[in-house]
């Protein structure tokens, strides 16, 4: 077998390629020149470039050595032949005797029968295969490791040319994704219903590298050194800022591992090698990332996978430092579909609401706060679509079907037409709901149900008139706090609350005091890090430990109310003593307002959330001290089932309509029936018609929900005989089934309840 012949090395090759790429001629001519240069430099008789076309077909676009007539005629499917095999596995393949390889597929039109050995590498962009670059030799020869690496580097530079849009129609080659060129349907979980058509806008923008080949490698080495130093410093600051030093728990361990990776000599060494081969520092980082992604495909061990993800994250950071900032900010399209791995509620609020049409996440659960905020914005939300980020790029057209948990990527005309028709039909349905606006939410057997809005943004309040809601059952005061960069002082807060009261006019507004902590963080408030934040230092726990914050908020509310009716609710109360303490602060503030000669509210109602199960066994003591109670089923259920409300892996595990939850509500409504204390349900379940139906059947008469739910829930209530359902539910209270959902759906169907 022949040995690898000497050749002139990667650096020279890259330089020559750079000149070709920057030169004159069409993209196709430059590609033809490129393969000629590669063949010459790598001492190969053949060099060919195959580009991915629609339908996952690899098409020969340029060749030096094969029959020129084969260009644009030779095509193979991903997985077919050696070229297809390289694309399918996204990894290089070197064979000294191609003919004896089990996957060899002979294409007579190429005239390749005289070539025995082959080295091919995938052309990758963003971890996706967009083509294959291959060299062939007549002799049976072993390709050296160095040659494989060089061809990979060259393929990376070529990726830029392939995705420039000049080679293939951009409609086909967007993002250079094998998947990007074909329409695709992906399944996810419905986090908020609705239908939207729009263009993808990535939450975390990919960094675009424009310069691949280095002018001066020594300079690139220096740039890398500086960027690494800046990254280390930033990571150290991050660790220090969160006080994650000794004894910082699991998070500290993770951060420490992260830092160790950042210092990983292997990783940094590989980047240096890539710079030495002639790449710019950015291109070198990307080159190493490409290898990593290829490895990731093979890894099944979850721990290793996590660590490789850490490295991905570090790569993004390092690129950011190399580019001296957060990269280019993409302009958001007019009809934007935001796609993210996961997101916090405040991050969502940073976007221009008028342009935001839907949210799609790889993770997420229905009761996560980002989903709640998205619901307030009335946009469809899909969650738990693993791998979606690998398959879309900015500007891709997508249809988000929040009702059926489906995402259509680059849909064909039929799907688009269908979606447009459905959007029109929905608008009609909305108009029908709007027509119910002035009708009472009264059941067939004459039971009145109060339907109120959950709000937190001023745009929510605009929905009051449109929906005919009876008031604001839950005003989440933390939301206006979350969208600010500094802590709002008393006059600022008072102004917010005053506007809310003004818009609500004579309808009641229930202000919930700050519920921060958990996944609701404020950029200007360091609440420390809890191992289990949902059960950690949050809501009233912070309010009582930092009474100045609570005091200021109550003062602002009293000020805003003037002589109007004021309703204040405390979140996450776990024991009556906490309510007593909070109430004392409120009484003090009322007294102070009176002493100052301020106008006092004409009526003050005080209530608590019921989110912590412990409160259920203190009801008599609690009820005698409050005017109303509001069940936060989102938190309540996570505590009842010991099941994190934000965990996508658990979100299907326990059902809201399980016998345990039903019995909880039955007991609650019976225990409070005679007390005069109103009980509202304001968690997400209250806004889903089937769940709302069950709650009415269990005796609840007050529900609070997002604006989009009022119409459907009212239509349901007006078609329901509440007492009949109560009897039915009583009958099934001891059901051994995990959920009564199917049973309740059947009930609705059989009794003509509009669900
Ligand atoms: C709840 O827990 O159900 C609730 C309404 O509060 P939040 O979702 O804001 O925690
Ligand atoms: Mg809650």
From TrEMBL:
Gene Ontology MF, one: phosphoenolpyruvate-protein phosphotransferase activity
The protein's name: phosphoenolpyruvate--protein phosphotransferase
UniProt family annotation: Belongs to the PEP-utilizing enzyme family.
Record-linked Pfam families: GAF, PEP-utilisers_N, PEP-utilizers, PEP-utilizers_C
Lineage: Bacteria, Pseudomonadati, Pseudomonadota, Alphaproteobacteria, Rhodospirillales
E.C. number(s) listed in UniProt: 2.7.3.9
Residue stretches spanning the membrane: none
Residue span, GAF domain: 26-172
Catalytic activity entry: L-histidyl-[protein] + phosphoenolpyruvate = N(pros)-phospho-L-histidyl-[protein] + pyruvate
InterPro entries: GAF (IPR003018), GAF-like_dom_sf (IPR029016), PEP-util_enz_mobile_dom (IPR008279), PEP-utilizing_PTS_enzyme (IPR050499), PEP_util_C (IPR000121), PEP_util_CS (IPR023151), Phosphohistidine_dom_sf (IPR036637), PTS_EI-like (IPR006318)
UniProt entry tagged with the keyword Cytoplasm: yes
Cofactor requirement: Mg(2+)
The entry's keywords: Cytoplasm, Kinase, Magnesium, Metal-binding, Phosphotransferase system, Sugar transport, Transferase, Transport
Subcellular location: Cytoplasm
